[in-house]
Amino acid sequence: MNRELIIDAISAIDEDIIGDCLDFKIKNEKKRRSKTSLPRIASAVAACLALAISLIYLLAPTPTAPPTIAPSPETLTPPVSESEIIYAKEADEKEFILKWNSLSVTKALFLALDGAEDSEYLAIRVSGISCEVKKEDFTSHGYIVAEQNGEILLLIKKEKLLALDTPNAVNYAFSLLTYAEYKSAIGN
Amino acid sequence: MEKNKIPSNSTLTDEEIIDLYFERDERAIEQTDAKYGALIYKIAYNILSDNGECEECKNDTYLGVWNRIPPTRPSALSAFISRIARNVAIDRYKEKSAKKRVPSEMTSSIDELSELLRSSESPEESLEAKELGEIISDYLRTLTRQTRYIFISRFYIGDSIETIARELSISTSAVYKSLKNTKAGLKTYLTKRKVII
């Protein structure tokens, strides 16, 4: 009996048997991940907090501002009404990273763009991944309504976001904001 | 945000994903990727041991599923997808190994079976893979669920012994023992069915 025949015969095992095993495998994998990821996340968060606290004590003799985006005097007051802005829901997956040089678009962006009209604005927080956010990448595409700590809060139309072709964009992380996050970010 | 929206934190059932394929809705691919992307990658990696090729395998698998549904309405979507992924990866593997033998977890698992059956003569030279697959399926149905799981993980998915042991929270020696018994049982079964002498 040759190898080819065995390989093909294994491929031809009935689907109900394979399906049963795969479903078990997928459930098992999910269970395992949820068990292992929680302690990892907790320890990562703890490490970040410890680092952040030590940095605050080291660098800031006076109380520091909360790490949210606050309105800046230089930022524009955009002629955009509340009803024109699309917010993320709490349950949505809000983080996404644009990958201009590949065809892959993450789920959150896909959903946001799928649900929004071309003329509606998305409330987005932009932060740098490997570089600082350059405001000039966005000023001609949308409204920067707040900025702080190298992050900007941007109102941008779906059609503009899709047309955003700045080469720097690949280095930015984008996050859709909920209504509460947006209000808090602009100081209301 | 509500229009045609699939909540991002929910996983659709297989039936709902199949319905998306029938509606020619491209979110079917997205949902398939969310639910089965890791599995497809794993199957491809166990055969090819090459990250770059695995990504291409994933894309080829999605294309294959898209082209087959409709008209096919699979009864077990996971099995249907995994079969396409496996075939895509095996085709690539054959292409590669025509030039050079490529070591992978799948190579060694198939070698295990070949070793077992090599000394046996096949009375029916024209035995079809499909027919042999059905006979192996009949045999697998006589096993317990865990034993079947170990066999499929090793020979269909190409998982390592360590991976299977970890997944089932049992020792590697227990996996070895189970595989040894299953292979011996398979040989007896094939002999009884006159597939091998």
Give a brief outline of the structure.
With 188 residues, chain A is an alpha+beta fold.
Would you kindly provide a written description of the structure presented here, covering whatever features stand out?
The complex is a heterodimer of chains A (188) and B (197). Chain A is built from five helices and six strands. Chain A is of the alpha+beta class. In chain A, strands 1, 2, 3, 4, 5 and 6 form a six-stranded mixed β-sheet that branches. With 197 residues, chain B is mainly alpha-helical. Chain B is built from nine helices and no strands. The longest helix of chain B has 23 residues, at 77-99.
Characteristic terms for this protein:
heterodimer, A: 188 residues, alpha+beta, six-stranded mixed β-sheet, 5 helices, 17% strand, B: 197 residues, mainly alpha, 0% strand, globular
**Biggest sheet details of chain B:** none
Strand content of chain A: 15-25%
Low-confidence stretches of chain B: none
* H and E order of chain B: HHHHHHHHH
- The level of helicity of chain B is over 70%
Shape of chain A: elongated
Number of strands of chain A: 6
Topology overview:
The complex is a heterodimer of chains A (188) and B (197).
Chain A lengths: L2 H9 L3 H45 L25 E2 L8 E3 L9 H9 L5 E8 L13 E7 L2 E7 H6 L8 E5 L2 H7 L3
Parallel strand pairs in A: 1-3
Antiparallel strand pairs in A: 2-6, 3-5, 3-6, 4-5
Chain B lengths: L13 H9 L4 H22 L2 H18 L8 H23 L5 H14 L10 H13 L3 H13 L3 H8 L3 H21 L5
